[in-house]
Write a structure and sequence with these properties.
binds magnesium ion; five-stranded antiparallel β-sheet; binds adenosine-5'-triphosphate; OB fold (Dihydrolipoamide Acetyltransferase, E2P); 2 domains; 36% strand; single chain; elongated; Rossmann fold; 364 residues
C-alpha cells in the first residue's frame, strides 16, 4: 500500500495538452475514481501513474518518493485494462502465474500466491480452466487476480467493466469494491460511468479537458457540485439562466430569463445584479396541476412561490421512478417522482415547483 501524489502533472502530445496540471493526493488504501467525458485525460493520467507515459511536467510520488522517471516494472503497480488481454492458450492459473514467473519466484511460492489471488476473486475452483472458456465477468476477475498476485502497492484500473453487460457490470462494481476493501490496496479506477464511480469509490475526481473540476465523496459532489459542468455530469440537472435581484439571509431572489421570480439558497458572495445559473435536480422538483400559493412579494424571503408554468410533455416509468418532461417556454425540464405518484394527464398545463433549499445557484 502506498500514498499516491500527483503534483501539477502535465502531459502534452505535440500541441495537444491531454493533462494540463493535475494535482491530487490519494491516501494509503483509498479507492479513487477518475471520471469525466471521453477525451478528458483519464487514461493519460492513469498511464502517467503507471509509467507507460512520461510526464511533460510536474511530479508523481509514491509514499513521498518520485517515481516519475521509473519504468512501469519498477513502480510496484498492478494494472487492469478494458480489454483483459488474457493469454488465450493458457489456463486460468497460468495466466495469473505469468507475472510471478517473469519475476523468477520459486515454483511453490508461485502456486501458493496464485491460489490466494484466485480465492480473492472467487475463482478458486477454476485454476485449470482454459481462459477461453470463461465468461466476460470471469475473465475480468482473472485479469484482476493477475494484477493482485504480484502484491502491488497501487492498483490501476482503466474502464475494467466496460466490456461487460449491464447486469454484470453492476455486480462487478460492488465486487471490485469488496475485493479492494479486503486487500486494502490504494486504487485508481478510471470510468466514464458516474454510477459506477459513485458505487465503488471513496472519492470521485471529476475531470474535464485535462484538468480536475472537483474532488469529493459521491455525496459531496452530488449535493454541492462546484459548477454547472459537474452538476450535469454527476446526476441530472435542470439549469436555468437568471439574474439575482436581491439577497436576504442566505437566499437570493432570482429573475429567470423568462421573467419569472424564484428563490434559491445562495453563496455568501452572491450579490444583486449577478448573472447566475439556477440548478434544480429532477428529484427535487415536482409537478402540480394547481399553482402553489402566492406569497406577498414583500415577504422576505417569500416561501413556496417557486413555480414555473409549463406543459407536461411526457411521463415515463423507469422502474422506481417516473421521469417527467415539462415544456417551460423554450426549454424542457426534467422532473423525477416516485412510482405511483398521482399525475395530471400528459398534455395538460402544470406547474413545476421545488423547495428553495434544494436549488443551487452558480455564478454564470
Ligand atoms: N498517444 C497519443 N497521441 C496523441 N494524442 C493523444 C494520445 N493519447 C491520448 N491523446 C489525446 O489526449 C486526450 C486525452 O486522451 P485520454 O485517452 O486520456 O482520454 P480519456 O479521458 O481516457 O477518454 P475515454 O473516456 O474516451 O477513454 C484526447 O484528446 C486524446 O485524443
Ligand atoms: Mg480512456
Amino acid at each position: 500500500m502506498a500514498t499516491v501524489e500527483l503534483l501539477d502533472v502535465r502531459k502534452s502530445f505535440g500541441a495537444m495538452q491531454a493533462v494540463a496540471g493535475v494535482s491530487l493526493r490519494i491516501a494509503e488504501g483509498e479507492f479513487v475514481a477518475l471520471l469525466g467525458p471521453s477525451g478528458c485525460g483519464k487514461t493519460t493520467t492513469l498511464n502517467l501513474i503507471a509509467g507507460f507515459l512520461e510526464p511533460t511536467g510536474g511530479d508523481i510520488r509514491f509514499d513521498g518518493t518520485s517515481v516519475a522517471r521509473l519504468p512501469p516494472h519498477r513502480r510496484n503497480i498492478g494494472v487492469v485494462f478494458q480489454s483483459y488481454a488474457l493469454f488465450p492458450h493458457m489456463t486460468v492459473a497460468q495466466n495469473v502465474a505469468f507475472g510471478l514467473e517473469m519475476r523468477k519466484l520459486p515454483k511453490p511460492q508461485v502456486t501458493e500466491r496464485v491460489r490466494r489471488a484466485l480465492d480473492i476473486v472467487h475463482l478458486g475452483q477454476m485454476e485449470d480452466r482454459n481462459s477461453r472458456q470463461l465468461s466476460g465477468g470471469q475473465q475480468q476477475r482473472v485479469a484482476l487476480a493477475r494484477a493482485l498476485v504480484i502484491e502491488p502497492a497501487v492498483l490501476l484500473l482503466d474502464e475494467p467493466l466496460s466490456n461487460l453487460d449491464a447486469a454484470l457490470r453492476e455486480q462487478m462494481r460492488f465486487e471490485i469494491r469488496e475485493i479492494q476493501q479486503r486487500v486494502g490496496i490504494t486504487t485508481v479506477f478510471v470510468t466514464h460511468d458516474q454510477s459506477e464511480a459513485m458505487a465503488a469509490a471513496d472519492r470521485l475526481v471529476v475531470m474535464d479537458k485535462g484538468v480536475i473540476r472537483q474532488v469529493g465523496t459521491a455525496r459531496e459532489i452530488y449535493e454541492t457540485p462546484v459548477d454547472p459542468f459537474v452538476a450535469g455530469f454527476i446526476g441530472q440537472a435542470n439549469l436555468i439562466a437568471g439574474t439575482i435581484d436581491r439577497v436576504t439571509g442566505g437566499q437570493a431572489q432570482v429573475v429567470l430569463e423568462d421573467g419569472t421570480r424564484v428563490v434559491a439558497s445562495c453563496r455568501p458572495d452572491a450579490h444583486a445584479g449577478q448573472a447566475v445559473m439556477l440548478m434544480v435536480r429532477p428529484e427535487d422538483a415536482s409537478v402540480s396541476a394547481v399553482a402553489p400559493p402566492v406569497t406577498a412579494p414583500s415577504a422576505t424571503p417569500p416561501s413556496g412561490g417557486n413555480a414555473l408554468s409549463g406543459t407536461l410533455l411526457r411521463a415515463s416509468l423507469l422502474g422506481a421512478t417516473i421521469n417527467l418532461g415539462v415544456a417551460v417556454g423554450e426549454r424542457s425540464l426534467s422532473v423525477s417522482v416516485p412510482r405511483g405518484t398521482a399525475l395530471p394527464p400528459v398534455g395538460s398545463a402544470v406547474f413545476v415547483t421545488w423547495d428553495p433549499e434544494r436549488a443551487l445557484l452558480f455564478p454564470a
